[in-house]
Amino acid sequence: MGSYTPGIPWKGADFIGDALKTFIFSRGSADADLSANRDVLECRSRALYQNAPFAGAAVDTKVINVVGSGLSCRPAPKSKLLNVDPEVVKNFTEKARILFELWAASKDCDAERDSNFYQMQELVMKTKAICGDCFALRCWHRVPSSAFGICFKLLEGNRCRNPFGKTDSRVLAMGVENDKDSAHIAYWFTKYPNFDVGDWDRFWESVRIPTYDAFGIRNVVHVFKADRPNQRRGVPWLAPIIPMLKQQERYQDAELINALVQSMFTVFIKTGNSQVPNNFTGNIQGSERVTPVDGAKAAAELSAGNVVELGKGESIEVADAKRPNTHYGDYMHETCMEMASRLNMSYEQVLKFFKGSYNSVRAAILESKKMFDIERANLASDFCQPIYEAFVFECVMLGVLDCPGYDDPLKRMAWLNCDWIGD
Predict the structure, then answer these.
(1) Which of 96, 156, 275, 411 has a CA 20 to 30 Å removed from the CA of 290?
(2) What was the pLDDT predicted at 328?
(3) What's the confidence (pLDDT) of residue 280?
(4) Which long-range contacts (CB under 8 A, 24 or more apart) does 210-213 make?
(5) Taking the CB of residue 77, how many other CB atoms lie within 10 A of it?
């Protein structure tokens, strides 16, 4: 008797056979599956980035290879659609590039005045990988050090949430408000970061921000990657491998502790005429102890180079842990390779460990490069281009840039065309 039901057209749909009858799955939509689990995934992903070596290495490797030193703008207006003198197009191209580079190199482009535009790209890419998405709010703060008032404030994904007391619905879910076509028309953000210093209990205060202003310029730049249609929020990049990452972290900690215990050499003096009543128990004293001396019998601790005289009736028995573990390297290699492949990267590039022939190493690098190129294109279209368009709009309104026919939507698209170059 086989493990599948005989005669079933698709074995993957079998509910009766032993192989798949306990296979539980969700029938929910993209938003329904994500809504109840997103906060947990984000918090666990952040914790693993902070503590698990492989998770941190994977995220940082992705950011370094996608962003590098930052994507630079190269304005490229579609002159054939503009019907203007080529000299006007040339002047706009040169002036727009110079003005944007001046603004982008200054930390005044950041509402918090902490980062320039290229550093913001790195932070956006890292936040997107860890949290699933990142938001940039268009602000206007005129300061003496800048000729422009436009700037952007970056927000983590957990700042976007429904107002306090409002449950998810088809219109509003996870802080994103949709119209009948599932287009994002507004976002709800908390006024303060969740559990902030001194204001940990004020995260429930929310504000609604329309996606576009009256001129069609984005108020909210939402950087995320959808895995399914009608998905309004992003999923943390590490989400599919969270269970394996946590188990690997525990395994590494256990191996490290075992190796540390094995390195501690302790000499025991055993005599039948000992005057020490209870020396082995609580043998480490003072600030050197790890556990407190509580109760009648304190815990015994190992120490490097320690000499202990056993008391009356005491003896030791040490379990052979068979360390070092000869299979540790093989296990780590296989788990790292499997997790890296799920992230569309080569494990050699994550671990910075290149072994083998030149061709095999080059193949591993080129395989990762496919994902990096896609992510760089997404960063340019989702983050860099909307910010460039908002900057040009302010320049046109201030009369700094001359764009004949800018009020025409088609010509405006032609003027705003731009290439983004990375290193």
Answers:
(1) 275
(2) 83
(3) 47
(4) 210/185, 210/186, 211/184, 211/185, 211/186, 211/187
(5) 22
Q: Six-digit token pair at 142?
A: 């005129």
Q: Which helix (H) or strand (E) holds 243?
A: helix 242-263
Instruction: Kindly calculate the radius of gyration of the chain based on its CA atoms and give it in whole angstroms.
Output: 30
Angle made by CA atoms 40, 46, 49, in degrees to the nearest 5: 140
User: What is d(CA 74, CA 170) in angstroms, rounded to the nearest whole number?
Assistant: 40
Q: Hey, what amino acid is at 329?
A: G
Three-class secondary structure of residue 82 per DSSP? coil
Whether a cis peptide bond, with omega within 30° of 0, leads into 324 is yes
3-state secondary structure of 42: helix
Compute mean pLDDT per 10 residues along the chain, 423 residues long, and list them: 71 83 88 92 95 94 95 94 92 95 94 94 96 95 86 94 90 94 94 79 84 93 94 95 92 84 68 54 57 58 64 65 74 90 91 87 91 95 96 93 92 95 89
The angle subtended at Cα 64 by Cα 59 and Cα 69, nearest 5°, is 145
Residue type, 286: G
Q: Give the sign of the dihedral formed by CA 291, CA 292, CA 293, CA 295.
A: negative
Q: Which pLDDT score, from 0 to 100, does residue 130 have?
A: 96
Confidence (pTM): 0.84
Burial level of 390, CB count in 10 A (0-12/13-18/19+)? buried
CB within 8 Å of 388: residues ≥ 6 apart = 73, 100, 416, 418
Phi, psi of 390 (to 5 degrees): -65, -35
CA dist 401 and 387 (Å) reads 16
3-state DSSP call for residue 25?
coil
Rounded-to-integer distance, Cα 244 and Cα 180, Å: 39
CB atoms within 10 A of CB 57: 18
**The token pair that represents 198 in the structure block:** 């001194």
Tokens 């040169």 locate to: 94
| Pairwise CA distance, residues 230 & 31, whole Å | 7
Phi, psi values for residue 207, rounded to 5°: -140, 140
